[in-house]
Specification:
- The protein is an all-alpha fold.
- It has a single domain, classed as Up-down Bundle (Substrate Binding Domain Of Dnak, Chain:A, Domain 2).
- A two-stranded antiparallel ribbon has the order 1-2.
- A hairpin with a 6-residue loop joins strand 1 and strand 2.
- Helix 2 runs antiparallel to helix 3 and helix 2 runs parallel beside helix 4.
- The longest helix is centred in the middle third of the chain and has 91 residues.
- It is rod-shaped and about 185 Å long.
Length: about 325
């Protein structure tokens, strides 16, 4: 299929019309605006990355697992270190994005300068073409009018051919001759302007084709540059994800070395206080002075009272019986007043 080109489809039937050219210029202006929008987008994204990186860097400096020990502590240290590396990686990404945005800005300015020179040249040609076209049309009106004047003068001469007024006829001949000269001069000037307009048109046609080819080339370069810029931008983001995952993989490797039982045993060996529990507290009976092996709490009931039987009668004491002493004095008492 044949490719379409600007130079083949942006003409106008009216010589002075610039509709086709204006459509191309509008397209180029829209493209320039798109470049600026993409440039601003990338700069904004770079600022977001930079802000995120700085906050992430600050976060990596905060205390995290300071009191932890052994394998888990090592994993947390790696976790913080890799978080710092991720933040630095995002800072580098932000810088790379700004560099790409700068390249786009330089590309846009370069195209702007190239267009500016060509547009000024085409504007001058358009003004020259319009001016010459107006001059040619004005000369045509003059030429048409002079031709009508000549015809009218000739008709007057023909109508008065049979008149006997010689002086009047000479006047008519003179007027007809002057009208013919005026018509010839208008014809010469008109023909000259048409020739000049033809040359101006030919020059404009040639420059219009060149301009269309250059504008088309610029548009193709712009589209290609924008496509590659966005592609590079996405590659940077994808690479950042890969870099992040590689850094996080270091943390995962460290976590794989984190041994729960080892950390428990490490803590035990480091902070152990003894391997024997305290002895049970035994119950001590206040009255008996003996300690209960079971350590049961003392009873709230008072100790039982052992009641003695009646005293034996001394008079009936036999030789085998225990001798009990008695006090004969009725006024004796163990209580002294």
């Amino acid at each position: 299929m044949k490719n379409l080109h600007f130079k083949d489809f942006f003409w106008n039937s009216d010589l002075t019309c610039t509709g086709g050219y204006d459509a191309i210029i509008q397209y180029l202006n829209d493209g320039k605006r798109t470049c600026k929008e993409v440039e601003d987008f990338m700069k904004a994204r770079a600022s977001i990355e930079e802000k995120y990186a700085k906050e992430l860097l600050g976060l990596s400096k905060k205390v995290c697992g300071h009191n932890e020990m052994n394998t888990l502590k090592r994993s947390l240290d790696v976790f913080k270190l890799q978080t710092e590396h991720v933040s630095l990686s995002h800072l580098q990404l932000a810088q790379s994005m700004r560099e790409e945005a700068k390249k786009l800005e330089e590309f846009r300015e370069k195209q702007k300068e190239a267009r500016k020179k060509l547009e000024q040249q085409m504007d001058a040609l358009h003004k020259q073409r319009s001016s010459q076209f107006k001059k040619t049309m004005d000369s045509k009106k003059t030429y048409d009018q002079k031709c009508r004047d000549k015809e009218e003068a000739d008709q007057n001469v023909n109508r008065n051919t049979n008149t006997n007024n010689t002086k009047h006829m000479e006047k008519l001949y003179t007027k007809a001759q002057q009208a013919k000269q005026n018509a010839d001069e208008a014809d010469r000037l008109y023909h000259q302007n048409v020739t000049t307009l033809g040359k101006v048109r030919d020059e404009w046609l040639k420059e219009h084709v060149k301009a269309c080819e250059m504008f088309e080339k610029q548009s193709m370069e712009r589209i290609n540059f924008l496509r590659n810029t966005v592609w590079t931008h996405l590659n940077q983001l994808s690479q950042q994800c890969v870099n992040n995952d590689e850094l996080y993989e270091e943390v995962r490797k460290s976590l794989e070395q984190c041994d729960v039982q080892e950390d428990i045993e490490h803590f035990i060996n480091l902070r152990r206080t003894g391997d024997k529990p305290p002895a049970p507290v035994l119950y001590e009976n206040f009255y008996s002075g003996q300690k209960s092996p079971t350590g049961t709490p003392p009873s709230r009931l008072p100790p039982s009272i052992i009641r003695r039987g009646p005293l034996p009668d001394p008079a009936q004491n036999s030789t085998d019986d225990t001798v009990y002493s008695t006090v004969q004095d009725a006024g004796y008492s163990v209580i002294h007043y």
